[in-house]
Amino acid sequence: MQPTLSVNLDLALEWYGDGGNYFSLAFFNKDIKDIVQTGTIVQVDSVTLDGTNVPIFYQGAVNQSDATVTGFEIAGQYFFDELEGIWSNFGVQANYTMLDVDADSPQRSLDADGDGNPDAFEGIVRVENLNGVIGQSENFANLVGMYQDDKLEVRLAYQYRDEFLNSYETFITGNPNIQDANFSIDASVKYQINDNLQVSLQGTNLTDELQTSKDILNDGGQTFQRSSFMFDRRFQFGVQYTF
Q1: Taking every annotated instance into account, which residue ranges of this chain make up the domain TonB-dependent receptor-like beta-barrel (predicted)?
Q2: Phi, psi angle pair for 19, to nearest 5°
């Protein structure tokens, strides 16, 4: 197995103002070779036993594809200190990332003997026109609204990402799997009772979003729903005392 190598080109513009305000804009290009994927099944050889050809499979980490990733990210943070009264305690954080991925799809079968013909199709990826890298969405976005004064701190956060490739071949069906686009809304509240005592309340997935995935059936892109997960709302209450 070869190490994953990447040649990167990055260009960034950053501005920093008073009171923690900042803005950044970055462009990047990454030429990645020999991406390592785990849990993959490939045929590495075959033997003849009692006149029957028996394939030998390997399951684990392999160099499965190359990819070129280009994109940009814009981010910023701003506090409205110049406003009057209570409004001067508000602030906002935001970032957005866009990726364009051009990746080699894994070969449907392995040519173990090097004769130019596939050795077999069992256990190898069923769809060859997958142009993506596992775990990478095209669009990511985060938005955080903030309020903070001498005693109270409130944050409300929104996160979003597009669909992304989960696996080139899933257990049972052997089909590629895509995680559908999803978002979540989280919040936190902290209150400083005195110099020593602080109480807090955090909530995650407040809208109780359902996360679903789908399998790709063929090279034509036909899909069917594979799974649905509900991670439930979660709340955490905390007390912090400083001596």
Answers
A1: 2-206
A2: 65, 25
